[in-house]
Design brief:
Blueprint (H helix, E strand, L loop, with lengths): L5 E6 L5 H14 L4 E5 L5 H11 L8 H26 L2 E5 L2 H11 L4 H12 L6 E6 L2 H9 L12 H17 L4 E5 L4 H16 L1
Parallel strand pairs: 1-3, 1-4, 2-3, 4-5
The structure holds ligand Z5A.
Length: 207
């Protein structure tokens, strides 16, 4: 049996992750792979409950460390209940966000040190890391304009443009420091062009 692979999709608000997840899933399935599609925070019943707390815009008093620990609490459950069993079966796991989002949002966005995040990453994940991370990169103004067309804003979506600028730079910095795992896609162009870039990326990576 081939070992399962772990693919994550990342990007700032309005980058288009939701729009492209189904495409990636169907492309992988067309290659005969069994795909488990999931998301963070969430992916399990317990994780989805934690997600509700994290995204609830009424939780304005949430401290940055609380936010960080809740992200990793949801992730610990996600790994134990879904990700590790799927990979052990040889399935491919496709996750809408994972720990890079923590480095970008809680690290670059909220100014929590990488060292502190790294302690939790090693504790919760051990040596497990994604095999491939696709970063949908988009300028903040473009992303926010796209996202503005959605309904009521959650707790993160209420952040200012400066916050998302730090998050974007955090992601680009991760991509620069981990080039073997990262593929950066220009998500500012039309949907079909972004999809083409993703397909070319997957074809090259899966060879
Ligand atoms: N978070 C965190 O802080 N720390 C962590 O460790 C983790 C997460 C794991 C929820 O995540 C929040 O959790 C997230 C970070 C934080 N908050 N924020 N921001 P989420 O992934 O569920 O939330 P999201 O970022 O809002 O993701 P999303 O729903 O997948 O949105 P999206 O990337 O913006 O994608 P979209 O809905 O597909 O696109 C938005 C709109 O743009 C939509 O109308 C599309 O039709 C349009 N769009 C997309 N691409 C294009 C192109 N190329 N052209 C034109 N229009 C486009």
């Amino acid at each position: 049996m081939n070992p399962g692979k772990f693919i994550t999709l990342e990007g700032i608000e309005g980058a288009g992750k939701s729009s492209h997840l189904a495409f990636i899933e169907s492309w992988l399935k067309s290659k005969g792979l069994i795909v488990v599609r999931t998301r963070e925070p969430g992916g399990t019943p317990l994780g989805e409950s934690i997600r509700q707390i994290l995204l609830d815009h009424r939780n304005t008093a949430m401290a940055s460390d609380t936010e960080l620990l809740l992200m990793f609490a949801a992730r610990a459950q996600h790994l134990a209940e879904l990700i590790k069993p799927a990979l052990a079966r040889g399935d491919w796991v496709l996750s809408d966000r994972f720990t890079d989002a923590t480095y970008a949002y809680q690290g670059s966005g909220r100014a929590i040190s990488s060292e502190r995040i790294g302690v939790l990453e090693n504790w919760v994940q051990g040596t497990l890391r994604p095999d491939l991370t696709i970063l949908l990169d988009v300028p903040v103004d473009v992303g926010l304009q796209r996202a503005a067309e959605r309904g009521e804003k959650d707790r993160f979506e209420r952040e200012q443009a400066e916050f998302f600028a730090r998050v974007r730079e955090g992601y680009l910095s991760l991509a620069r420091s981990t080039p073997g795992r990262y593929r950066v896609v220009d998500a500012s162009c039309p949907l079909a062009d972004v999809q083409d870039q993703i397909r070319i990326t997957l074809e090259a990576w899966c060879q």
